[in-house]
Amino acid sequence: MSLLDILFIGFAIYGLYTWLIKPVMSNLKTADFIKSHVRNKKMPNATKEMEDIYKKKAITLGVGAVIVVIFLIFVFGSFYVVSAGERAILITFGNPSAEARTEGLHMKIPIVQSVHVVDIKTQVASFDNEKGKGDVAEQSSLFAASKDLQDVQIATVVNYHVEPNKVVEIYRTFGKQPFYEANIIEPIIRETVKATASKYTAEELVTKRLDFQSEVERTLSEKLATKSANLEKVNIVNFEFSPSFTQAIEAKVTAEQNALAAKNKLEQVKFEAEQRIASAQGEAEALRLQKEQVSPELIALRQVQVQQSAIDKWNGILPQVTGNAIPFISLGQNAMTSTSVAGGAVTT
């Protein structure tokens, strides 16, 4: 009820009191006053007829007030409002109307007709996987079994809405909306999720989560359409497996991580060995190329360079002690001086 309706009712009650109830009470008091004065002979000119006139008037006003109250009740009971996102079914002695009423102000016959309002906005069916919450645990959780027979609870949230032009059909077929949601929509969701989960192993439910969700959404959309409901979105929020399976998964992941680490280490060792082999092959190839470039002329040139370097470094002083005769420096046949070491003596 809106504030405007409350104000209207308040003014109606005030007007009823001012124009009907108050005058009736005043007339009744006047009649009692006249009666008491007649009995006490304080008003000798008053007659019994005057008293009867006032009483009849009071009774008439009282009856009129009752009629007005009944009339107001019928007036207020003849109107009803359908809010945005709703449809109303007008029921006459249990028989629903052929068409639903849309948003706005409508009229009905009090007592004879009643109104059943259906919400056509987005509805949410949630299975939160938390035991003990909800009306009963089975209604708040969705239990399923995977292809490899692993128990799993699947937290699921489904958004849907009823078809606006089929609310009368829904009421005729399934009854009121709460019954329709609890006994038609939710069982379909449960059956669809369970049937789809049985096609996937426990590991695939996790690794192929989007595929699983898409298949549930596609199947559920087709099934809800047969029950005059339109699917909007399916969200697979979480998977909860048994404790033993969870521990096995953790152990498997740990083993895979350790194996991957060992494999990476082996690959590193192989890579370093290949680097060393490549380096050795490069050095050998360099030596081979250098060897191919060696010639007698190059050797003679290197000897001359070595001897020249020795002359450049010699300070002009000959060794004082020598062993077997070893040529020290060869200056060629035209040399003015030849130096050699023989038998421990130095000759020039």
What's the structural blueprint in terms of helices and strands?
Layout: H1 3-39, H2 48-77, E1 79-82, E2 86-92, E3 95-96, E4 104-107, E5 113-119, E6 123-127, H3 137-140, E7 143-145, E8 151-162, H4 167-174, H5 177-197, H6 202-207, H7 209-225, E9 229-241, H8 243-293, H9 296-313, E10 327-329, E11 339-342, E12 345-347
Antiparallel strand pairs: 1-4, 2-3, 2-5, 6-8, 7-8, 8-9, 10-11, 11-12
Question: How does this model look, in words?
Answer:
The protein folds into four domains: 3-77; 81-119, no CATH class; 123-241, Band 7 domain (Tetrahydropterin Synthase, Chain A, 2-Layer Sandwich), CATH 3.30.479; 297-347, no CATH class. Strand 11 (339-342) and strand 12 form a beta hairpin. With 348 residues, the protein is of the alpha+beta class. The chain is 55% helix and 19% strand. Residues 132-137 and 331-348 have low confidence and may be disordered. It is rod-shaped and about 175 Å long. Strands 6, 7, 8 and 9 form a four-stranded antiparallel β-sheet that branches. Strands 3-2-5 form a three-stranded antiparallel β-sheet, with helices on one face.
